[in-house]
Amino acid sequence: MNRTRDKDESRPGLRVQSADGDFIVLLDGEWTVDHAADMEPALDALSPPAGAVVIIRPGDLRQLDLTGAWLVQEIRERLRAAGHDVRLDGFRTRHFRFLEALPALRQSAAPGKIPAWRRLLLTVGRTVVGERRQIQATLGYLGRLIVNLLGVLLRPRRLRIRDISHHMYETGIMAIPIVALIAFLISIVTAYQGGMQLARFGASVYTVDLVTISQLREMGVLLTAIMVAGRSGSAFAAQIGFMKINEEVDALRTMGFEPYEILVVPRVIALIIVLPLLTVLADLMGLIGGALLSVFTLDMTLQQFYLRAVDAAGLNTFLVGIIKAPVFAFIIGFIGTMRGLQVSGSAESVGRQTTNAVVQSIFMVIMADAVFSIIFSWLDF
Question: Is residue 51 classed as helix, strand or coil in its secondary structure?
């Protein structure tokens, strides 16, 4: 019983009195940070008569700290702004003196012009902190994607075949014309420029080696991945981003669905399937382009081109490009969907994250290709 009484007595409260036309406010209880939630409603309820002099006094005030003094000062300023003459009576004034002097202290402590070297350090520091947070978010997303991907693959019933086939059509079938055309034209350019240089040394026949090896090992899969990153990576980011803005992702969670299994995993699986197939198409179109240029500029027959290409490039050369394709596909799908889920707030965010998805996908694909080149060089593959 005593404990309940002590608890009630410690709760902050107000008593209002009127004397000689003055509006007197008495503070009771403990006005401390522990009771801040009770102090604000009590102060907000004050409504003195218009033009009245308001006097704030300690009544049965048991304790007052800086937080309580701050709230009293806030209501004091608010009542003054409403046209009241507000006075504090009977308080120890050290808290209120500090609060009244705080604006001057802030102004006197305002920073002056920051030297250039400090601005540089601040910029570097902010960049490092931002990149650290981005790396943490990326690793967290990567782990969650792998867990969901493995979970779906280990339980085939959870595979969304219709979604996968739809994304295969969008990212694979619809990309065939542009991938085939780019591979064909790039191989012609490579064969023409290489043939022009090799002809100066009487080694035009090695143009076939140049086109075949470069197309099968590097150009076919790399150009295909870049084109897919521009088409599909940006589409993934934009589609998921607009779903995020329209709160469709939150709606899926509310209905008990896992957004990663519905929005992310089908797109990644579809890319992993179609990119090796598009790479084979790009290799074929590249060899056709190189063969046509060789026939018309090097006085070489198609049979001679075929025999030379088979002699120059073995099965390992073809497998190098095919091995890279699923890795590049995972990178594109991973970055595109991640950037889509990072959209927040507005259409401007969609545009920014879509641009980030394309740029980062292409950058990571080229970096991965460089890593593959080093690894295959060590393995003599």
Answer: coil
Taken in order 201, 207, 213, 218, is the CA torsion positive or negative? positive
pTM over 0.70: no
pLDDT per residue as tens digits for the range 175-201: 999 999 999 999 999 888 888 888 888
Q: How far is CA 334 from the centre of its chain?
A: 12
Note whether 250 and 147 are within 8 A (CB): no
Closest to 209 in 3D by CA, of 74, 309, 85? 309
- Convert the pLDDT of each residue in 317-371 to its tens digit: 889 989 999 999 999 999 999 999 888 877 788 888 999 999 999 999 999 999 9
Half-sphere exposure of 27 (CA within 13 A, CB side): 25
Whole-angstrom distance, CA of residue 268 vs CA of residue 341: 14
Domain ranges of the chain: 2-108, 136-379
Using DSSP's 3-state secondary structure scheme, residue 21 falls into coil
Q: Cα 123 to chain center, whole Å?
A: 20
Residue 381: how many other CB atoms lie within 10 Å: 12
CA-CA-CA-CA dihedral for 242, 244, 248, 252, to nearest 10: 140
CA of 6: how far to CAs of 27, 60, 72, 129, in Å? 16, 13, 23, 48
Class of domain 2-108: alpha beta
Of all residues in the chain, the percent with pLDDT exceeding 90 is: 33
Q: Is 378 left (phi over 0), alpha (psi -120 to 50) or beta?
A: alpha
Length of the chain measured in residues: 381
- Cα(157)–Cα(151) distance, rounded to whole angstroms? 10
Asked whether 150 and 249 are in contact (CB, 8 A), the reply is: no
Amino acid at 269: I
